[in-house]
Design a protein that fits this description.
The complex is a heterodimer of chains A (165) and B (289). Chain A has one domain (2-163): Roll (Nuclear Transport Factor 2, Chain: A), CATH 3.10.450.240. Helix content of chain A is 27%, strand content 45%. Chain A has three helices and six strands, in the order αββααββββ. Residues 1-19 of chain B have low confidence and may be disordered. The N and C termini of chain B lie far apart (104 Å). Classes of the chains: A alpha+beta (165), B mainly beta (289).
Chain lengths: 165, 289
């Protein structure tokens, strides 16, 4: 029963700024709970901006630069990531989040149109670097809940949280 | 260097807050930890090592003595998420993972309500959406009942209870038949958030005018203009009087004042006079003949 609902409606390749680093992106059929219809353009914009947020997250945590979060994160998620970057800086740690695959489904579009929630079953490589020494690189599979809200020209991630699978 | 804790009482306390234990190489990890609670990580072997707990939400690093238990006190790891744990010793590196899950107790609601102003008596005219958070601003993803209440002084209370899915719940409400400010409340347990919705009168209903000669003029005046629920339509609402006579037409737009629109127009025998407000038509009067 679930399989038809979860039928893959598109398979995309998200090209990162680094060319060779590509994450495969599957977008599941949208099964919204909520009264507001989701236009295709809105769906595409949300997914585009969410994937870009992963690139920003990687760059910010890899370089310990808070300013790299500004474009794609806002509110609670930005505050938490900012704290993480500050902790990393104090400890001499950098982390590299290389997303490899996203399995996305938009699950909620709030009635007033001010928030969109999606679920991302994501695979990524996480590298931990301590004082320029690579400690480990691990493959991680996690289920993320993200809530995005519209800003002037893009959707920004307001809630970004892994939940147990 | 941060302190290392390895005392039995702490381990006992931590064991209460951990949901299950998993062995990862030289480490024994909890499978999940509730945000903000104490926990411990046990290691085996001997010698010194560095313990890392890494996630987008938080990063911790501890110098540890292998073979002991490292205690993390309550409040230290509070951001929900998936954490990688790395135990880096001179001769080996072990890794594992665990989840920090939101606290069970809701502490904050993000409540989006729309619109802030609308007409009375609209079916499903008001919408509200809620995200439920714990005290650490973690989204509580487990199903949680949310009560939505809409009330004002003159109308009864509407209540809808909706269970969250992935931390979100929404509802629609009807605007009440009586004008005035209404409190739109979202409530989870003892936590609530309130938005004020202004409910204003709707379109005029049963618009009616009277005509009376005043010298060479007709004095046209509406009855007090009300909507279909009996609320007085707001002053300033435009009422249009139209007089048609002998193929020509005269129109006067008049704002409501004290609930009534009044105007003088020429008194022609046989003139047809009508009144309207927006798309709402009122009565017609054939003057004279």
């Amino acid at each position: 029963m679930l399989k038809p609902l979860l039928a893959v409606c598109s398979l995309l390749a998200a090209t990162t700024a680094f060319g060779a680093d590509q994450a495969t992106v599957r977008v599941e059929t949208t099964t919204l709970h909520g009264p507001r219809p989701l236009e295709k353009q809105t769906e595409a914009a949300v997914i585009r901006d969410y994937l870009q947020a992963w690139k920003s997250l990687d760059a910010a945590l890899d370089q310990n630069r808070v300013d790299l979060l500004d474009q794609d994160f806002v509110g609670t998620s930005k505050d938490k990531l900012t704290n993480t970057i500050q902790q990393q800086s104090q400890l001499g740690i950098r982390t590299h989040y290389q997303d490899k695959a996203h399995d996305l489904q938009i699950v909620f579009y709030s009635p007033e149109g001010l928030s969109i929630q999606l679920i991302d079953n994501v695979e990524y490589d996480l590298q931990v670097v301590d004082h320029d020494k690579s400690i480990t690189t691990q493959k991680v599979h996690a289920r993320y809940i993200a809530v995005l809200t519209p800003s002037e020209v893009r959707w920004r991630v307001r809630v970004f949280q892994a939940v147990p699978e | 260097m941060r302190s290392r804790f390895a005392f039995p009482l702490a381990v006992m306390i931590a064991a209460v807050t951990q949901f299950a234990i998993a062995q990862n190489g030289n480490m024994t990890l909890p499978q999940s930890v509730e945000a903000g609670t104490a926990f411990s990580i046990q290691s085996s072997g001997s010698g010194n090592a560095i313990l890392y707990i890494v996630g987008p939400g938080q990063v911790l690093k501890r110098d540890v003595q292998l073979g002991g238990s490292t205690f993390f006190p309550a409040g230290l790891l509070s951001n929900a998420g998936h954490y990688l744990v790395v135990l880096s010793a001179p001769s080996s590196t072990d890794s594992g993972a665990f989840d920090v899950i939101p606290a069970k107790q809701p502490a904050d609601l993000s409540f989006l309500a729309k619109p802030s102003r609308l007409s009375v008596g609209l079916h499903n005219g008001i919408s509200g959406a809620v995200y439920v958070f714990d005290a650490y601003q973690n989204l509580i993803a487990v199903p949680t009942p949310v009560s939505f209440e809409l009330s004002n002084q003159l109308s009864g209370m509407q209540t809808h209870t909706v269970t969250t899915r992935d931390g979100a719940a929404w509802t629609n409400m009807d605007s009440s038949p009586k004008q005035g400010a209404a409190n739109f409340v979202a409530r989870v347990g003892s936590i609530s958030s309130t938005r004020v919705i202004q409910q204003v009168p709707g379109e005029p209903c049963g618009l009616r005018m009277n005509a009376r000669r005043s010298g060479q003029k007709l004095d046209l005046e509406t009855d007090p203009v009300r909507d279909c629920s009996g609320n007085a339509v707001s002053d300033g609402t435009i009422v249009t009087f139209t007089e048609t006579y002998n193929g020509s037409q005269s129109t006067a737009d008049v704002p409501l004042k004290h609930g009534i629109a009044r105007v003088e127009m020429p008194a022609y025998d046989g003139a047809l006079i009508s009144v309207a407000s927006g798309v709402v038509m009122g009565n017609e009067i054939r003057w004279g003949k």
